[in-house]
Design brief:
Structural class: alpha/beta
Radius of gyration: 17 Å
Shape: globular
Strand order of the largest sheet: 2-3-1-4-5
Keywords: Kinase, Transferase
Number of domains: 1
CATH architecture: 3-Layer(aba) Sandwich
Organism: Bilifractor porci
Number of helices: 9
GO molecular function, one term: kinase activity
Protein name: Cytidylate kinase-like family protein
Order of helices and strands: EHEHHHHEHEHHEH
Length: 199
């Protein structure tokens, strides 16, 4: 069987990350999420917190202090995307894997053995997930959903010109509130196995 890659885009609070982890476990393949930004930060010799901040914000005082002679934060941000792009392509070519976020849906869109899922959930359920699974207070959960969704969509649109939920990039759109983490991952695993003819 040739290598294949499953990418996951998701709304904040839809439990896309734990679903992705469970999916990788069910399929017996690698799971990548934070590993990508950690490796990119290592290659660029950036503190992890600084690299993570660059994925979501256009300006950071830390970068201006670090590069006082004119290496703009925009240049570093563009370089970060290029490095992450290279890491995603490299890791996806080595072995079958599940990759969450970081425009991987777009980066791998033309690969032969690739499928992308977009995971969403009703707003009230996402608030509930943030409270019960992430330990947020209700007000903080609502604020985080708004802020993170906007940040992810800005990032995705900046580099792909598509919204995360755009049907042109997503083969399967699924509401995680219907079956929960395990049930959603099981449905996705069945779909992947049929798509790639895995026994």
């Amino acid at each position: 069987m040739e290598n294949y890659t499953v990418t996951i885009s998701r709304q904040f609070g839809s439990l896309g990350r734990p679903i992705g982890m469970k999916l990788a476990e069910l399929l017996g393949i690698e799971f990548y999420d934070r590993d990508i930004i950690e490796e990119a930060a290592r290659q660029m010799d950036l503190p992890l917190a600084e690299a993570s901040n660059l994925e979501e914000k256009e300006r950071t005082g830390l970068l201006y202090m670090r590069y006082p002679l004119g290496k703009s934060n925009i240049e570093v941000k563009e370089r970060l995307y290029e490095v992450e792009n290279s890491i995603i392509r490299n890791w996806a070519s080595r072995k079958s894997c599940v990759i969450v976020g970081r425009c991987s849906d777009y980066i791998l869109r033309n690969e032969k053995n690739h499928i992308n899922f977009f995971i969403y959930a009703p707003y009230d359920q996402r608030v509930k997930n943030c409270i019960e699974d992430l330990g947020f207070k209700k007000e903080d959960a609502m604020s985080m959903i708004d802020e993170v969704d906007k940040a992810r969509n800005r990032y995705h649109k900046r580099y792909t010109h598509f919204k995360q939920e755009d049907l042109e990039l997503n083969q399967v759109v699924i509401d995680s509130s219907v079956l929960g983490v395990d049930g959603t991952a099981e449905i996705m695993a069945d779909f992947v196995k049929k798509r790639f003819h895995i026994n």
